[in-house]
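hiii, so i know i said id send this last week but things got crazy w the move. better late than never?? heres the sequnce for the chain we talked about at the cafe, plus the structure i predicted for it. fair warning i was half asleep when i ran it
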Amino acid sequence: MSRPDEIIIKNAQEIEWMRESGALLAQVFVMLDDFIEPGKTTMEINDQVEAFITQELKSRPASKGQYDFPYVLNSSVNEVVCHGMPSKSQKLKQTDIVNIDITLEKNGFIADSSKMYMMPKVAPHARKLVAETYNAMWAGIKQVKPGATLGDIGHAIQSHVKPFNYTVVEDYCGHGIGREMHEAPQVMHVGKPGLGEVLKPGMTFTIEPMINQGTMKTKLKKDGWTVVTRDKKLSAQWEHTVLVTDDGYEVLTLRPEEKNLGG
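okay and structure toks below
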């Protein structure tokens, strides 16, 4: 049994299992690309994902039951920063942005990823936030290599969004992942170059910046899960599960449309 603060280095077989979980999770988002549209409820999205993971992919939706969470995904719309709960009454509107955050377990190993979906009439300022949050995630991912530090990742992310006057949420962060959904280390999305844990081959963790249009301050709603921006301005998030390789990084949850981005 590992200690809670112990970083677990994956061996070659464990990396193969994590690759498989990541590739399967990428398939879930491919399916969702044709499913998510205005008028769909976030609960319909949840139910579609659960059926696809369990029936089509013969895998386990790892979020369901984790910390007593009853659903297979988080659906975070507009000012929701993270951990939004699916609802039968929440229909996506033409102007909404929504983050869909999903975990999948296969062969005892978990992959974690999220993607932003924009409805057809999203305002230009919202499209910009979504795009630059995606670019910020990749700025962080591209820092990953043996000998780099977690501070390098955080610094790259916050440096990318600063010119747009966006803020980085610091209340929630990325995390190590493997047999458990949340392992060491914590991966902050702010930092100073050269500081923090030194990256080593075989480490696996998520990079998942939450970027706000306004203040970084957040508020937890009464349901005990949903986190919203304190000023009700928009928030966006993207997430990938990343492996530190011998000479750089591999994005284990890379989707087909990202194949030219590396990993």
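btw The chain has one domain: 12-256. thought thatd interest u
miss u guys!!
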